[in-house]
Write a structure and sequence with these properties.
By secondary structure, this protein is α/β, with parallel strands linked by helices. It has helices at about 20-25, 40-50, 60-70, 90-105; strands spanning about 1-5, 30-35, 55-60, 75-80. It is built from 4 helices and 4 strands; from the N terminus they run E-H-E-H-E-H-E-H.
Length: about 110
């Protein structure tokens, strides 16, 4: 299982191929879309039921992803997409997320 946390923008409503979905299909993985406006408490039961091994997250929602990942024993990998190292806020959020994963024993 791969949980995907990010916004559902207009680009996903157009008839075009989403590369993340293609990769999941190619690898035989089930993708669980999660909405970025959810809270950790709302996501926790979804994580418990689906037991995703991977959490793919947009860089904009890294804080929510980290809270969810650290609360879910099934998550083994967090993959960040839409990351731009030239954006200070994203670079800092990624640095903090790596630190949290280290202190969380993962």
């Amino acid at each position: 299982m791969v949980a995907r946390l990010g916004s559902v923008s207009a680009q996903f409503h157009r008839p075009r191929v989403n590369p993340r979905c293609v990769v999941c299909n190619y690898l035989g993985l089930v993708s669980v879309p999660l909405h970025h406006n959810s809270t950790v408490s709302r996501l926790a039961p979804i994580f418990a039921e689906t037991t995703p091994r991977v959490l793919a997250v947009s860089a904009a929602y890294l804080d929510l992803a980290m809270e969810s990942a650290l609360g879910s024993p099934s998550v083994r990998r967090v993959t960040v997409f839409d990351y731009d190292p030239d954006v200070d806020a994203q670079r800092e959020a990624l640095k903090q997320a790596r630190g949290r994963l280290g202190t969380g024993g993962r």
